[in-house]
Amino acid sequence: MLAAALGAALAFGTPAALAGTDPVGPTAPAAQAAPRTSTAATPASQSATWVAGTRAYLVITAPGDTSAVRTAVATNGGTVFQYYDAIGVIVAHSASGAFAATMRGVAGVQQVGATRTSDVPADAYNPALPANPAQSSTGAGEPVRADMTQIKADQAWAVTTGSASVKVGILDTGVDDQHQDLAPNFNAADSASCAYGKPDTRSGAWRDVGSHGTHVAGTVAAAKNGKGVIGVAPGVKISSVRIAEPGSSLFFAENTVCGFMWAGDHGFKVTNNSYYTDPWQFNCPDNADQAAIIEGVRRAQEYAEGKGSLQVAAAGNSNLDLANKTTDTESPNDSTPVTRTITNACLDIPTELPGVVTVSAMGTTAKASYSNYGLNVVDVTAPGGDATGIYSTLPGGKYGTMSGTSMASPHVTGVAALLASTNPGITPAQLRDKLATQANDVACPSDTRCKGTTAKNGFFGEGQVDALKAVGATPPAGKFFENGADYAIADNATVESPITVTGVTGNAPAALKVGVSIAHTYIGDLKVDLVAPDGTLYPLHNRTGGGTDNINQTYTVNASSEAANGTWKLRVNDNAGGDTGRIDTWNLTF
């Protein structure tokens, strides 16, 4: 579910499994004893030797002691790459075309499934460490973005920025832990790579092999440090579990299994999963390979949840109704996709697994054009960017925009982290319930595809998550006012968006907060003023910024001489030709 707009657009050839940026595919995954695993800290110690034709398999057996089935793997043309006794899942490699069929006849084997239609890369046996990019420095400046005001994260921070005891796992392409906005909250001790399906705990193995995971991490928990951006929960700790493989950036089932097992064993309260499990956009239980993938990943997610971890996942970017599946045209994405007929029994995993919170994307007020949807599939919604994108961290100390359900999911993950911060001991089931009950209803538009009620429908699920409610507060009655309607900004013209304030006693404060979100491709054309009810102008932006795109900022205005009640206006004047835009939304906090 990644493609991209990183300021300058990334090529759409990026693998479809990522759930982020402009649509290229769908999603952009009682306490038990810790699993006994074959634990070589450095995969170079793996004894197997790669040969052409090597494929990966999940071999499913009863949880407990997998030793007998592991022996059978070795005697039937395979090698054991990794195993998880606690859930009865073995990751096996074999170059034998008969391996799966043979193993399905072995006593104690419940399922066997190939996880790829391509060879396991030779890199699996001695993985190269990802690059550690040189870091750019960014000066002071940390404007509050429109996506944060949309879910009231900026108001939540006045209550709490989250607890450092809450661990959040970013299961993705990796994270640049050296980034100035991520380093303060990065937890290296619980970070690793799960590429190829076994933990690699070498320092830096968790780093980004793309940019997607770093962008996601910033939305969850970029530090509130006066630089760049602020995440939804800027006080919690983030760990990177890289499950994408270098080169392809694909997320195969064994990698996801490894990631969920790691999450459970390392105390992650929440994980973010902005991807689908490659190579199948949908895994169908009537296919032996895909049935084993479903079962293996399901067991790993169930294990993580049993250890106290909630999984949040992106719904996907193919504008599909997940409640009425008919066709898959994108699978397998590691070889040659074919068109196949599917049913609702076929699952987009991990997002459609039991217990996982499925997140759709919206723009300012509507479903994002690319977002998957589905009644009783989508749980909640959050900003994912549509026309303007979500601005966040990129490797090398940089920043940029992406759009997608990949960008919506980390907003929900951040809200879940705030919930966990203010509710110590909360269980995954309770977190799911609170995310739903605290979400703000979003009604269906005039679109026949949207089924359900205002309280729960296929486009938005239970509604848009609310960070302020997550920290145990509600907007002060009569003190927060917003106009979310779009107002077009034409060339060489002036437009005003009004907000009528009522119920506030006395004058406006000396620190009136004015949140502004304007989409415009050349903000150096713009003059932006707050107009008080008596007509007094308070300048906010005066033709600065040159060719920079968009204004997403909260301004502080001394309006103490003004009566609070009345109609306030945001006035935007365009002073040149060639670039147009719109007022997306703006608000006043008294």
TrEMBL record:
<comment type="similarity">
    <text>Belongs to the peptidase S8 family.</text>
</comment>
<dbReference type="GO" id="GO:0016020">
    <property type="term" value="C:membrane"/>
</dbReference>
<feature type="active site" description="Charge relay system">
    <location>
        <position position="212"/>
    </location>
</feature>
<keyword id="KW-0645">Protease</keyword>
<feature type="active site" description="Charge relay system">
    <location>
        <position position="406"/>
    </location>
</feature>
<keyword id="KW-0720">Serine protease</keyword>
<keyword id="KW-0378">Hydrolase</keyword>
<dbReference type="InterPro" id="IPR023827">
    <property type="entry name" value="Peptidase_S8_Asp-AS"/>
</dbReference>
<dbReference type="GO" id="GO:0004252">
    <property type="term" value="F:serine-type endopeptidase activity"/>
</dbReference>
<dbReference type="InterPro" id="IPR008979">
    <property type="entry name" value="Galactose-bd-like_sf"/>
</dbReference>
<dbReference type="InterPro" id="IPR015500">
    <property type="entry name" value="Peptidase_S8_subtilisin-rel"/>
</dbReference>
<dbReference type="InterPro" id="IPR002884">
    <property type="entry name" value="P_dom"/>
</dbReference>
<dbReference type="GO" id="GO:0016485">
    <property type="term" value="P:protein processing"/>
</dbReference>
<protein>
    <submittedName>
        <fullName>Peptidase S8</fullName>
    </submittedName>
</protein>
<dbReference type="GO" id="GO:0005737">
    <property type="term" value="C:cytoplasm"/>
</dbReference>
<dbReference type="GO" id="GO:0012505">
    <property type="term" value="C:endomembrane system"/>
</dbReference>
<dbReference type="InterPro" id="IPR023828">
    <property type="entry name" value="Peptidase_S8_Ser-AS"/>
</dbReference>
<dbReference type="InterPro" id="IPR022398">
    <property type="entry name" value="Peptidase_S8_His-AS"/>
</dbReference>
<feature type="signal peptide">
    <location>
        <begin position="1"/>
        <end position="19"/>
    </location>
</feature>
<feature type="active site" description="Charge relay system">
    <location>
        <position position="172"/>
    </location>
</feature>
<feature type="domain" description="P/Homo B">
    <location>
        <begin position="474"/>
        <end position="590"/>
    </location>
</feature>
<dbReference type="InterPro" id="IPR000209">
    <property type="entry name" value="Peptidase_S8/S53_dom"/>
</dbReference>
<dbReference type="Pfam" id="PF00082">
    <property type="entry name" value="Peptidase_S8"/>
</dbReference>
<keyword id="KW-0732">Signal</keyword>
<dbReference type="Pfam" id="PF01483">
    <property type="entry name" value="P_proprotein"/>
</dbReference>
<dbReference type="InterPro" id="IPR036852">
    <property type="entry name" value="Peptidase_S8/S53_dom_sf"/>
</dbReference>
